[in-house]
Amino acid sequence: MDFFVNELSLHGQFKNVSEFRQAIREVMGCRERITRYKRRIFVSRCIVDREVLQGGKTFRKTVPETGNKDFVRLVMIWIDRDGPFIEDNRISDPGEYLSLPGHNDEVVTDAGIGEAAFRQFRGSDTSLVSFAPSNYNYTPIEVCWHHNDSDVKSCDLLNFWEAQKLENHLQTRQSPPSSWQDMIVQLPSRFPNLTFLNNLDKHLVGEPFDVCIVERVFVLLDVLNQLKVSFDNQGERTRNGEELLDNYFRRQNALFSDASDQEKNDPNLRSRMIFSDSDSPQLECFWHGKIRHREYRIHFTYPITSNQPLYIAYIGPKLTKK
User: Fold this and answer.
1) Which candidate among 135, 285, 296, 306 keeps its CA 20 to 30 Å from the CA of 314?
2) Domain layout of the chain by residue ranges
3) Helix (H, G, I), strand (E, B) or coil at 296
């Protein structure tokens, strides 16, 4: 898994050096964790020219004012010498372009967001690191890939701007499985707040193992795992729970959604989304998490409440293909 610094999240938003100091220290904290987990974090050489202070002062001119000399040296060595730099490792196709539908279709082909998206479209697992506060403090970030006027695909990039949340995410990504069975065996320990049906493996029989799908499964299950415990003592959803729902359930083209009325009213399709095993009753699991790579799905019970198990009933290819 590779990370990319979202230099677009520097857009002259900081009122003073003190605010920027806090933001750059948080990003450096993210970089330290990424490096410790033996992952890479790419940065654009253009970041030095991004405006950071209101009034137009750039990154390069502001960093020296942010703290002690050792910290300033660490930052400047990273963005001037060590990288790794996006410009030295591009795989994007200059004949195509990417845009952000949530930002007036801003073209991001040459930015960190664009390169991260290109790599994800080609099967790599990529995420972003953004500065905060900024116009990019939400996750996931949808990116559209324009092949031509009529062929547009989209992907979702996880985005981090808090070092501790990134640390929590990285902890779930250790010791990647080498088979579907390995993945299933790891699920209860990785996601202890979820309840997994015993026969999950039967849906993956004959399916070629794909580590990219495994990584996306873990991302989606981590959201559900957090949601299951995002309740207060009165059973009301916490602020963190509402943010997760906003980011992953309520957005246009969200990663989690309900089956359509057409699918529910079709007896054949409806029956495919009802599950059981020897230890559970029949479960209607119309809600699902979406993995665009090879069109995989995770079906689960919904609504999510504080006092009922959250069952994960299915992981496998999309069930409602006709």
Assistant:
1) 306
2) 2-166, 172-317
3) strand
d(CA 4, CA 113): 7
- SS3 assignment, position 58: strand
Strands 40-42 and 256-257: unpaired
How many Cα atoms are found within 13 Å in the side-chain-facing hemisphere of 127?
A: 22
* Separation in Å, CA 238 to CA 235, 305, 306: 9, 12, 11
Q: Which pLDDT tens digit goes with each residue over 11-59?
A: 999 999 999 999 999 999 999 999 988 889 999 999 999 999 988 899 9
User: DSSP states of 103-159 as a string?
Assistant: GTTEE-TTSHHHHHHHHHHTT--EEEE--SSSTT-SSSEEEEEESSSS-EEEEEEEE
For 173-214, the pLDDT digits (tens) are 766 788 999 999 889 888 889 999 988 999 999 999 998 899
Distance CA 134, CA 131 (A): 6
